[in-house]
Structures are given as structure tokens and as C-alpha cells.
Design a protein that fits this description.
A: 2 domains, B: mainly alpha
Chain lengths: 231, 104
Amino acid sequence: MNSNFKIFLKGIIDVSPLMIPVVPFGLIFGILAIDIGFTPLATMGMSLIIFGGASQIVLLQLFSGGASSLVIISSVGAVNSRHLLYGAVVSEHVSDLKLFWKIIISYFLIDQAFARSNEYFKKSNDKNKYFHLIGGGVTCWVIWQTTTFLGIILGSAIPEKLGLSFAVPLTFLALLVNDFRKMINLIVIIISGLVATFGYNYIPYKAYVIVAAFAGLFTAMILTKIIKKYE
Amino acid sequence: MSDWALIIYCGLITFLTRFLMIALLKKEMFNDRIREVLSYVPSAIFPAIIFPAIFLDNNGLIHLENNPKILAAIIAMGVGIFSRNILATIFSGLASYWFLIFVV
């Protein structure tokens, strides 16, 4: 078997446990979009063009609340600003690639694929290790498009009472299972979470995500420095 | 602005945030210190999505009393810490959430 294809498959396998919560998330998105009044075609268009769960949900939330286009676009940008950090982490591993591959990788640089491929990139020295991220990204892409489509068709057949949207924070929680055991990580997690929760209403344009992230990173910077001093 | 224009602009800005750093940063810009701090990126970002989704209600107000999501998230976290298994974490969280809202 071609080794690139093997890495691609490994990406699919590594990301698949994270895909189960994507199913209700995609369904919810499809249902909500139709409910708010987008056409089925525009709803599919969102999943194909934007391809980002959090961005699309923010778009729906603000659109239904009557926000202006400028506010919607800048909020989507703010929610997405975390990708700048993912890009910074991943760029080291893909900096020798051609522009074409960088564009492909960027389109597929989603939370789940980033989390799993970041772990893989640290361990692997293969120059084609980026196929891992493409494998994870393509897997999520297929599931996201399919479930959006099903959501559009199923409409209100799924009861809201099930609280399936809770699967979203649970997915992110599951991505941190290895970090809860480490002291610095735990402190960073708590700081970022508190800043986001208390800043949610006060930080404009939904920028609480990136403000909290920088508060967390700043904490990590200081704590790692202090620990070095005493080593 | 038409719906389609809005969707395309949101798509563009999403793509740009993903592409910008990959396009601009070069390997030589990284040293061990930067790598060390960047290794905390998941711990710094994911809680910003997790905490508000658990502790805030639909109106963005802090909701601590009778909030089944808090207990469900703690159970999921406990299962995650001991099992180190992603699926077990997610399912234990959803199962305890459903148990709390439908059974208790």
C-alpha cells in the first residue's frame, strides 16, 4: 500500500471517535438553518463554503437575532481566530509544501483534525505526514455535508428536548482528556474557561474565545518560565 | 447584503484565519520556547468553548443551580481522566445528561 495513503487512513482512524458528536451537530445545524428561513441550497452552501461548525452556528444565531452583515462577518472572524493559532502550530510541519497543498490543508484545518494530527505530527518524521490532517479533514467533511443534508430533510422530526447541542462542549472536553492530569494545563484550562464565561457578555463581537485563549496562553508562558527557574 | 454574499464572506474569513499562519510562518521562526508555549494552544482555546456552553443559559446568564450540564460534564471529565478514552468521555457525558433530565 502506498505510504501516503496509509498516513491518510491513519488520519481517518484517529479522527473517527471524534466524529460521532459531529453527527448531531450537523443535524442541528441543518434543522436550525431551515427553521430560521435559509433555503436548502443556501444551507448546503454554508456547509460547503464555510465548512466550520462553530462559524455556521454563530452565523445562524446572529442572523436570526437581526444582526447586521458586518457584525456577523466580524463575529465569525472572531470565533475563527482560534484557527490562527492552529495554523501557527501546524505551519512548522507544512512549511516546505507547495501553495496548492497549503490551501487544501487550510480548508481542512478544523478542530478535530487539528487536535488529532497535532499529536501525530509531534511523533512522526515522515515528510508526507500532512496526509494525516487531510484524512481527518476529509472524514469530517463527508460527515458534515451528509448530516447537514439529513438535517435539512428531517427538519423538526428530532425533538429539541434531547439537548443534542450538549454534544458540542463534550467533544471539546474529550479533546482535553490527556491535559487534565497536568498541573500547568489544568490551570490554563481553568483561566481560559473563566475568562470566556465571565467575558461572554462583556467582550464585544464574540471575541471572548480569542481573549480567553490569549489569557490562557499568557498564563502558560508565565508558568512554564517560573517552573524553569526552579528546576 | 444577500444571503449568498454573506455566506461567501463568512467562508472567506473562515478560510483566511486557517490559511494566514500556514502561509506566512516559516520553519526558521520556531524555537523550543515558542514550541513549548504553542503546545498549550488546545488547553487555552477549548475551554473557551466548553465553559460558556456549560455554565451559561440561552440568554448568556450564568446558570449554576439545577444545571444538569455541570454534573454531566464533571462525570465526563472523571471518566476521561481515568479511561483516557475520547468516546467513553463523550458518551458518559451524554448518558448522564439524559439520565439527569429524563429520569431524575
